[in-house]
Design a protein that fits this description.
By secondary structure, the protein is mainly α. 78% of the residues lie in helices and 0% in strands. It has 17 helices and no strands. This is MFS transporter, PPP family, 3-phenylpropionic acid transporter.
């Protein structure tokens, strides 16, 4: 299989997976609001998307490391998650919908951490091309956000689950484009080495920083669309604003390798955290000023793009080859999972008690704390050829 074919096969699943996110994240809270759920119920249901990331990636990552059959696990997760999503069409009420969302996201959230390992292994010595492969996920997200937003200008939001069905089919179909891996069983790692890595102060700081980063995104992923709707923006405008953030993310992925030539990893992290804090303050206070809102969305390049690209390097450097799968799962579970779920839930209380703006101010406070932790304890990750960290 040639390099070009591998590139397109790897890019395909990223495209469909993030297209599904593009159809789900910006509009699902509006769909839930249209179904008559309260702000706290919406926050709980949106948190469930992140909640299963606490357990699912670690379980599936362990199975992937143990068996080496990550492609088969990705296929199983894609198909099973798509089938379970069909429970949404039963209109099961709050608790039934919560169960459906927990069930389908348990399998769906297993896909990406496994696929990140597959991608990096497939690229081999060409890992610098990761950004170019991953940017197709951003393209899929933008296409879905804009397409669904345009359709929702013509049809009711209650049709959203039907609009997502073809994208689920795309995810399932793309999972079968890669050939199955050979049973790549790794030799047993030194006993207790994973514990030594995760208790190292630099690793603890890394996870705390990313945990707080995702807590701060809770208001964005749960209430940004509702916040915009309250300020008079329509569905298409909401979709385009979401898309603008991801366009900036694509631009960042394309130039990230150049930034690392001029700035240290710690400098990139500190700068991105500061810009993220500024972003939440601007959204909280100046949503009605369109140029400011557009600038705030461009800062998505910092708050997601730069920090995720750097974090992939951190996981690879900290955990090494023996624990790469489990390290990726911990990164997903402890940050996107626990941090994202807590952020969504806390933002629900802030919106219910105060306003959507208060929730974004909460995100800014989380970023201020993350900057203090990063400045004090975070260090650069080991190089590709270095030994994994130990607690000594």
């Amino acid at each position: 299989m040639g390099d070009t074919e591998i590139y397109w096969r790897l890019s395909n699943l990223y495209f469909w997976f993030f297209a599904l996110l593009g159809g789900l994240l910006p509009y699902w809270s509006l769909y839930l609001q249209g179904q008559g759920f309260s702000y706290l119920q919406i926050a709980t249901l949106m948190a469930s998307i992140q909640l299963t990331k606490i357990v699912a990636p670690s379980l599936w990552g362990h199975l992937g490391d143990k068996t080496g059959q990550r492609v088969r696990l990705v296929r199983f997760g894609a198909v099973t998650g798509s089938l379970l999503f069909a429970g949404v069409f039963l209109e099961p009420g709050f608790y039934g919908l919560l169960l459906v969302m927990l069930a389908f996201t348990f399998f769906w959230n297993a896909i990406l951490p496994l696929y990140e390992v597959i991608t990096l292994r497939s690229l081999g010595e060409q890992r610098d091309k990761y950004g170019k492969v991953r940017l197709w996920g951003s393209v899929g997200f933008i296409g879905a956000v804009a397409g669904v937003g345009l359709l929702l200008e013509w049809i009711s939001i209650e049709w959203l689950p039907w609009l997502l069905l073809p994208v689920f089919l795309g995810v399932a179909a793309s999972a079968f484009l890669l050939p199955a891996e050979q049973g790549e069983r790794k030799p047993p790692a030194p006993k207790g080495s994973l514990r030594a890595i995760v208790t190292h102060p630099a690793v603890v700081a890394f996870f705390l920083m990313n945990f707080l980063l995702q807590v701060s995104h809770g208001a964005y992923y749960t209430f940004f669309s509702i916040h915009l709707e309250q300020h008079g923006y329509g569905n298409l405008a909401i979709g385009l604003l979401w898309s603008l953030g991801v366009v900036s993310e694509i631009g960042l992925f394309l130039v990230m390798h150049r930034l690392t030539r001029y700035f240290t990893v710690r400098h990139i992290v500190m700068g991105a955290l500061a810009l993220t804090m500024i972003r939440w303050i601007l959204i909280a206070e100046l949503t009605d000023v369109l140029p400011v809102l557009l600038f705030a969305q461009l800062l998505h390049a910092a708050s997601y793009g730069a920090l995720h690209a750097v974090s992939v390097q951190y996981v690879q450097g900290f955990f090494g080859r023996h624990h790469h799968g489990q390290g990726q799962a911990l990164y997903s579970g402890l940050t996107f999972g626990a941090g994202g779920a807590l952020g969504a839930w806390l933002s629900g209380f802030l919106v219910d008690g105060f306003s959507t703006s208060a929730a974004f101010w909460g995100g800014a406070v989380a970023m201020a704390i993350a900057m203090l932790i990063t400045a004090r304890w975070l260090q650069a990750p080991p190089g590709p050829s270095a030994e994994p960290l130990s607690s000594s």
